[in-house]
Amino acid sequence: MEIIKATTVVGIKHNGKVSLGSDGQATLGNTVAKSTVKKVREMQDGKVLVGFAGSTADAFTLMERFEAKLSTHNGHLKRAAIELAKDWRMDKYLRNLEAMMIVANIEEMLLISGNGDVIEPDEEVTSIGSGSMYALSAALALKKHAPHLSAEEMVKESLTIAANICIYTNHNFTIKTLE
């Protein structure tokens, strides 16, 4: 799968809370187009968090579809994610959209891709975007070796580490937490 550049999104479930955060950078080629993009959103009256990486227009289209699937399936996160992934992979129009999503509620967190993937992470930590492997490594280490930190603190520190390394990730963070 092609690596999607220009963002980092990381999610962590820890001690009964889930936090999802992203940087704010959007790039056009090798130029920063905007540094304050909000890539983490709330849905279902604040019960679901969604973060996206990839083409902004594509991500907004997918978020609208995901929100519709949530409504159709009475807020059932996994069922909505599976139905979106099926449509995304099979629909002639959706198949060409270039983005990835992390969706979470207090019970579960899932990564959704256009390849039909709906992945629930083993360690309750996941990430997407160009800085995702830096953020994921940091998040896994923090969860294991600094369990006294909150999910939100771990997300912030993971994003900071990614932003210090990845040129497509900045320090303008949006972090949302469900309790």
Describe this structure in words.
By secondary structure, the chain is an alpha+beta fold. It has a single domain (8-178), classed as Glutamine Phosphoribosylpyrophosphate, subunit 1, domain 1. Helices cover 34% and strands 30% of the residues. The longest helix is centred in the middle third of the chain and has 17 residues, at 56-72. The N and C termini lie far apart (33 Å). The relative contact order is 0.25. The mean pLDDT is 92.
Provide a brief overview of the structure:
The protein is of the alpha+beta class. It is 34% helix and 30% strand. The chain has a single domain (8-178), classed as 4-Layer Sandwich (Glutamine Phosphoribosylpyrophosphate, subunit 1, domain 1), CATH 3.60.20.10.
List the defining traits of the structure above.
five-stranded antiparallel beta sheet; Glutamine Phosphoribosylpyrophosphate, subunit 1, domain 1
**Main beta sheet:** 5 strands, antiparallel
Which strand-content bin applies to the residues? 25-35%
How many runs of DSSP E, i.e. beta strands?
Answer: 11
Helix and strand composition category:
alpha+beta
CATH class: Alpha Beta
Shape: globular
Tally of distinct domains: 1
Order of helices and strands: EEEEEEHHEEEEHHE
The CATH topology turns out to be Glutamine Phosphoribosylpyrophosphate, subunit 1, domain 1
Strand order of the largest sheet: 5-6-7-8-9
How are the secondary structure elements laid out?
Elements: E1 8-14, E2 17-22, E3 26-28, E4 31-34, E5 40-43, E6 48-54, H1 56-72, H2 77-90, E7 99-104, E8 109-113, E9 118-119, E10 125-129, H3 132-145, H4 151-165, E11 174-178
Antiparallel strand pairs: 1-2, 1-10, 2-11, 3-4, 5-6, 6-7, 7-8, 8-9
Helix pairs in contact: 1-2, 3-4
